[in-house]
Amino acid sequence: MTTQYPWYIYFSIEAILMLIPYHGVNFYDYLTKSKPWRREIQKRKSQGIELEEASVSLHAIIHFIIRASVWYFHIYHKTMSNMNSISLISFVLKMILFDGLGVIFHQYQHSKFGRIFNHLQHHQLRTPTLASSAYTSIGELILSSHVGWILLGFIPGSFWDHCLFLVISSTIKRLCHSNYDHPWEYTKLYRLLKLVGSHEHHVHHLHPNKNFADLFIFWDQLFGTFLDPKDVDGINNYNNIMTEKVE
């Protein structure tokens, strides 16, 4: 495989594309001005702990250093430099394996030995929001995202299918970590693909030993850690709770 461009060209393109899940989702949130539909949970499950402001700048610096290093390695060793094609098989495989690794790493962070990554600080948030996803330690950020991105970069494919994987996986992770009810989560296609929605991830913040996956429900079903949001009070029956209170 021949290198078509210097490593920093690939890194620059990826950096621009990765603005989509981070700033695009925030822009969507601003435009829709969606009303949070889990206010009842927020009232009953008080956080009770003041979190320190997350260092977004430090997270961004770490992210840029790691991603630049990864693309330098890929170009130097000629492991990924094809700019002329895209492999949907490679994209799907990366999505599935990345989430599988994520479930394992996520469960580890909830274990006795994995607490050094300080993931439990994140779980002080009982009602996850788009903004609260920034409350993570650097170690947690690297383990939950960058390790998987680095490992999956070695799966044969092209630069474009790898970027597509990065953008789509990051977008789903951002949107599922929301306090809003997204309409597409109820579509047949979304359910058929067994994608994680804000319902499923919200369950994880109420029951930390359940629903570890960020992208696909079937990983939790496979590991026996899936808890259906329909069985959790206040998530799918919010209107019923409010009706009972009125009566």
Automatic annotation (TrEMBL):
Species this chain originates from: Rotaria sordida
Protein name per its UniProtKB record: Fatty acid hydroxylase domain-containing protein
InterPro entries in the record: Fatty_acid_hydroxylase
An individual GO BP term: lipid biosynthetic process
Entry's transmembrane regions: 6-31, 51-73, 85-105
GO molecular function: iron ion binding; oxidoreductase activity
Keywords per UniProt: Membrane, Transmembrane, Transmembrane helix
Top-level taxon of origin: Eukaryota
Domain Fatty acid hydroxylase, residue spans: 92-225
